[in-house]
Structures
1.
Amino acid sequence: EVQLLESGGGLVQPGGSLRLSCAGSGFTFSTYSMSWVRQAPGRGLECVSFIGGNGYNTYYADSVKGRFTISRDNSKNTLFLQMDSLRAEDTALYYCARDMTPPYFDSWGQGTLVTVSS
Amino acid sequence: EIVLTQSPATLSLSPGERVTLSCRASQSVSSYLAWYQQKPGQAPRLLIYDASNRATGIPARFSGSGFGTDFTLTISSLEPEDFAVYYCQQRGKWPRTFGQGTKVEIK
């Protein structure tokens, strides 16, 4: 069974940093592209960042470009999102999601909540 | 970026009814569109991909159609577990974008 388990969320002040992690199991992690998708409270879904299976191809939403960095450690089956210069509008539930082929999100974690507030 | 507009925002229906949800793209996405279902407190679940293909384990009462800019998700007969929010999502162009959602609620 495919499982994705996010961690690392919490309360942080504006301008602060957080590092999210997502541990994958039940599948060959290195052969799948992965993404972070966020959902602000009571709002819709936003694709934040994408990384290819080998870690070389990455994409970012304009709203986070230059502030967030996606990475992965295939030896540990773990996906990361380094979030710097956090803003109030980054407050959201952050989901880790697996990209199938074709690239849609076929498995999701339960999310980790990031709250940016003073 | 490609904007996806879903309609209506909310549908109030009874179990057994047929449901048709709409998603319109601001520019063509070919057939590169998916539908997801999200229930309160849960992550989204992939229902349909590439406009008309059911994802693994999705019941046959869910079907999708469309091409270019206009897409439809149909639920042939609503089951109690189908009351949820439905999102469309395109992969035709980065950034991948979602619609704002349609809530299907019990009448």
2.
Amino acid sequence: GAGVSQSPSNKVTEKGKDVELRCDPISGHTALYWYRQRLGQGLEFLIYFQGNSAPDKSGLPSDRFSAERTGESVSTLTIQRTQQEDSAVYLCASSQAVGLSSGNTIYFGEGSWLTVV
Amino acid sequence: AQSVTQLGSHVSVSEGALVLLRCNYSSSVPPYLFWYVQYPNQGLQLLLKYTSAATLVKGINGFEAEFKKSETSFHLTKPSAHMSDAAEYFCAVRGRGKLIFGQGTELSVKP
């Protein structure tokens, strides 16, 4: 597609329920990233995919968080047994293939706004 | 490990005044540096990036940034602020494949 697409754009869920957030990267982009942004705060790195593998998932805050990517395309971020502190915007981004350091631009989606009540 | 520090969580300027948003980086290798802007309730949009070519980088909407290795800085400037520049601005460095962001600076523009 023309840009990074995320769904749902807004999600309200009850504490303890599981949620899935979806990301469609820009066509041809092999690198895909997930970030979390709590209200009024900066961007917190969660996980990064190169193809279908995740070289760096150091930012996942707990074992309730997991992510997968299939077909070097769509990615799903799953949060199990949601807690109120999980309320945030979850931003997905993509870029062309990268090495350990690259000047390739990372393009962001509009985010999925998650509210846990 | 790479990191960035943005000085000032909030900056307020008058319309038409100079905008200066400060960013200092830490990197053990030549860095790739980025500035992104985030308008309310939107995702991040790339303003400009430094990739070891020219040290003065021009971006969109009249913004520019100068890479100064001796000062480990990559400050963002705009000669004349416009009301539409009010947003959150993030400096970032590329580190081990991912972007590492500063805490952000909220820019307010007064009429």
